Each structure stands twice: as C-alpha cells, then as structure tokens.
TrEMBL record:
InterPro entries per UniProt: AB_hydrolase_1, AB_hydrolase_fold
Pfam families: Abhydrolase_6
Cited Gene3D superfamilies: alpha/beta hydrolase
Domain AB hydrolase-1: residue ranges: 124-278
Listed name of the protein: AB hydrolase-1 domain-containing protein
C-alpha cells in the first residue's frame, strides 16, 4: 500500500514538473509572454455590452463610449465619464441625447461640458492587465477619482490595443503609442491644458504611465501634467516575475529564484522589460534639469499578493536617488524613513520627498489588496492633493 501511494505521488510530481517545464518553455516565446504579461484575452465583461455603460451602473448618458485613433491606424475604445454633480446639473440636456457609442464624440453635450468649462479637470485612466474599461474594480475606481470634486473632474479611460474592443496585438511600444494618442486627444481635441490633466494608473498601467510621462517631459518644450498617481506599481518585469503568480496562484519564475544561475538565464528571454525604475528616474531627471514642477504619488497595499508592496518601496528609492544630487543608497533612505516616515496605524504609513521642483509621495496601506484599493478614499484624497497643489482654489 505504501509503495502504491509512493508510486502515484511520484507520478503526480513528475507530471507537475513536466507541466512546469512546458510552461517555462512557452515563456521563452514572445507570443506566449505577451499573453502572460498582458492577459488581454481575459475580458471579464463577456456578458455585458460596453456600448451600454448603464449596465455597469452608470446613469443614462453619464458615460459616452467613443474611439480615439491610434498612431498606427487602429481605433482605441474609450469611455468619457461625467462627474455625478455635473451630470445632475445638466441632466435634462443629457437625457435628451441618444445613448450608446458616439461616432463623433465632439458632437455630444458631455464632451462640450469638458471642452468648454475652463475649470474642468481631466483624469486619464490607464488600467492594468486583463479585462476592459468596464471590468472588476475599475468602475468603482472611476467614481472614487471624481468624488473629491464631483462637478469638475471628468475621467477618460481606454482599452489598449488588443484589449476589449481595441483591435491589435499588445506590446510595450504599442501600449506607449496608444497612451500618447489618448493624451494628444485630451490636449488637442478636448483642448485641456496639461496643468489640468492628471494621469492615474494601476498595476501594469503604472508602467505605461511612467513611460508616457517621461516621453512628454523629454519633449522640447517639455510637457508636464498636474501629476501622476501610481497604484500597485512594479519595478520592472524581470523583478516582478521573481515573485509573480498568475491569478495569485500559478507561479512564473519564482520556483527558479532559488537557483540564481538558472533564474538569470531565463530572464534573458524576457522580451519587454517595462523598466519603471529607469523611467521614474528619467522623468524626475528631466524635470529637475528643466526646472519643471512635478508630483508623483505611489500607493500600495501590504496585503497585495499580486505585486508585493516592496516594489513601491524600491521605486520610491529610485525616485529619491534621482532627486538627491549626490544620490542616496537604499539603506540610507531606510534610515531617513525610520526618523521621518509618518505612521498612520491601521491605515499604514506615508513618506514624502521634496525638492524645489517636485514631490514624490509613498503611501503604503495595511490593507487594500491589489484591486480593492482603487475604490477607496485614499485614491480620492490623492487626486485632490495633486489638483489642489496646482491650484489651491480648486476645492
């Protein structure tokens, strides 16, 4: 009996090892990597029509589906979401309009409320991997983003190429081009100046956010937005895969992390690194050199089992190391944190680093998981903190 149990256990172990070896083999191919990194085929809104935002809990014509042209020729599916108090003020006019997808967004009354109101603010939302603009905790997130000033804060969210109804295949370069196209739409079509635009992002979207923010900061003349919020960011893909588990359960390369030589070998097959640590440094370096004002807020929950909160702490160090002319080691920053970090008890902790030009804020929460945090008041506060820093009268 013991021998039989041992035999079946050995067979099961061999099968698991074989399956994992097969997974490792697939991970060396760029196409499979794209599916693992972006999870773009996982829609999570199969049984709802994105062209009917009311089915996601919005009021009639509060959200307008439309599309933005990508520089590579495709169309990016997007939503324009009106803040609730602004909707209440103009409800009769909005209800008189047709609901659903707008072939010409500029003809819609909601768009005119964004374009023609000099005190309007716009949040460009860059979502994480998997799903669509209507998936999971993203809808409560949109409400939290505008809750601090529900008559003035609009949200535009979009699906990258290959996600939802946006055709194409995702790639690092492609997603960056898509996000740049959305920013161009906001500034050129909607006519919103960068000082009234905040870029919000979560998970994979934080890498897109930093890439785009750095891109515009490096332009001549530089373009700098009101600020950026990064929720659950990661250092880079090679660092992430050392601990990442698909759906919180299926490990990628974490079992190999115990074998440095083998682990480093497999890292060489990673095609797209999404190096946020380099981009956050490049963004700050450009703004410091140009004397431009910048604001970054990093938010992470300690109980995030998808992306450990240590990633935010490392990113914060890369930011501060760039802000300090002589540089600062990770250990030195930890010593400063021990003295200056504000302990908020069950709410977590926060730390800020300032220069004459900018501020980077690290907020590590005790709870919030990977997605739940997006609908929490900490997000609303972060939005208002940035907008009020730009214009103290905005309250």
């Amino acid at each position: 009996m013991v021998c039989l149990v041992f035999k079946y256990a050995s067979i099961s172990a061999a099968v698991l090892v074989g399956l994992y070896a097969g997974l490792l083999g697939l991970l060396t191919t760029s196409s499979f990597q794209a599916h693992v990194v972006y999870l773009h085929k996982i829609q999570m809104t199969w049984f709802k029509d994105l062209d009917i935002p009311e089915s996601f809990g919005f009021l009639r014509c509060q959200t307008t589906p439309f599309s933005i042209k990508s520089p590579t020729g495709g169309m990016l599916y997007a939503w324009h979401i009106l803040p609730i108090e602004l909707y209440r003020q103009h409800e009769p006019a909005l209800l008189a309009e047709p609901a659903g997808f707008a072939l010409n967004i500029t003809s819609r009354f909601g768009f005119k409320l964004l374009r023609d109101e000099p005190d309007a603010r716009l949040i460009i939302h860059m979502h994480g991997a998997a799903g669509t603009v209507g998936s999971g905790y993203r809808v409560p997130n949109y409400r939290a983003l505008s809750a601090g000033q529900p008559s003035k804060i609009h949200v535009v969210t979009f699906d990258y190429r290959g996600f939802g109804r946006s055709p194409g295949t995702p790639s690092e370069r492609g997603l960056c081009l898509d996000a740049i196209a959305v920013v161009d739409w906001a500034t050129k079509v909607a006519g919103i100046p960068p000082s009234r635009i905040l870029i919000f992002s979560q998970s994979m979207g934080t890498a897109v956010n930093l890439a785009v923010s750095e891109h515009f900061a490096l332009q001549s003349p530089p373009i700098v937005f009101a600020g950026a919020i990064l929720v659950a960011p990661f250092v880079d893909v090679p660092t992430l895969v050392a601990t990442y588990r698909i759906a919180g359960s299926i490990p990628l390369l974490s079992p190999l992390a115990r074998f440095p030589v083998l682990f480093n070998y497999f890292q060489t097959f990673i095609k797209e690194t999404w190096s946020s640590k380099d981009r956050i440094a490049g963004y700050i370096r450009a703004n410091e050199a140009n004397g431009e004002t910048y604001r970054l807020i990093l938010i992470h929950a300690e109980d995030d089992y998808d992306i450990p909160s240590h990633h935010t702490e490392v990113l914060f160090w890369h930011a501060v190391n760039t802000m300090v002319p002589r540089g600062i080691t990770y250990e030195e920053l930890e010593e400063v944190k021990d003295k200056s970090k504000r302990d908020l008890g069950a709410a977590g902790s926060l730390m800020e680093w300032r220069t004459e030009n900018g501020v980077v804020r690290e907020e590590v929460l005790k709870t919030g998981l990977h997605d739940v945090v997006m609908g929490n008041p900490v997000v609303t506060m972060a939005v208002m903190r940035i907008f009020e820093a730009v214009d103290p009268s905005f309250n």
